[in-house]
Amino acid sequence: MRNRSLLILTTAVTAGALTLTACGSRDDKGGAENGDNGNVTVTIGLDAPLTGELSALGLGIKNSADLAVKTANKKNYVKGVTFKLDSLDDQAQPSSGQQNATKFVADKTVLGVVGPLNSGVAESMQKVFDDAKLVQVSPANTNPSLSQGPNWASGDKKRGYKSYFRTATTDAIQGPFAAQYVFKDAKKTKAFIIDDKKTYGAGLAGTFKGEFEKLGGKVVGTQHINPDTKDFSAVATQVKSSGAEVVYYGGEYPAAGPLAKQIKAAGAKVTVVGGDAIFSPEYVKLASPASAEGDIATSVGAPIEELASAKEFLANYKAENYKEAYEAYGGYAYDSTWAIIEAVKKAVEGNGGKLPERAKVVEAMQGVSFEGVTGSVAFDEFGDTTNKQLTVYKVTGGAYKPVKSGTFGG
Known about the structure:
alpha/beta, 13 helices, 17 strands, elongated
């Protein structure tokens, strides 16, 4: 372990708070570090798949969070605080996510965590963070049960973890939004529904199915796949013989691309539709541009390239020369990170300029509100974003292009 400068922190009489003054040296992780300029260093953790099949999305999240931290430090946005990003790779595996959550909790300099990408990974992390009163803000989780409890669909909504927040809207909105577009706009009335049996995929497919049938659409077949096999010939044959006009896939692009390619190679004349986890150039590559042409994905928010609020983010991201694209969740990752920065600022100011306990940052997060990259950022009573906008994208000329933005029912 390398030596670090000692941080002498004055203990307040109440709440064990720490003043933001520093000098000396210390060699442990018992509290905040002092930064290069003498400021207290507060760590923001980040958990995402940084390697593996979903790394394109994960690295876009990491880079965008890094940009937010750099921006806050350049602006000296929280007086007396320098922010540091600590990124851990979960490889899209719940067990790894839980281990990472435990590592973040053990590091007392961590006052907030951005991530994860996958709803299934989030399930494994929530209790760890909540027990430690460590705030978590995901830029990408969309399964409603994470914030509204397992019985949300029946109207029995209960928030299980007060430390959990997200800047992405949920599948309770995204699935029905896609169903309305498919049935009303695309005029497709026969759907074959497939999911990967994961928390995100199965949940999204379920909400699509419910709304599609409610509108009068007919589900001509359902199937579950193992996304790791990459051989989908059997289900491709079923789709072809079903008479489906559209295939709705609940899952992620590593399987969605090959699945779409094989379904169409089998002779099925269908449009493949999915959620935000297939909204990536990687989907088009894996499906092949010819096979993917006309396919549809929904994603959270409005197209970032068209938002006035995103101009500075886009320019700064380019200026930093990140090797990877910001992808579907870049703007949301920046806003998730900035939400933690705002909560720390709010908690510091409400604590007499002293470094707050983690629980105070959780409390502050509930009242955070600012104009972010993706628009207005704030959280409702469940910790969900108040921004419910979604966009439909269609593969046109080998790339996703926006065709419709709005909210469910609108």
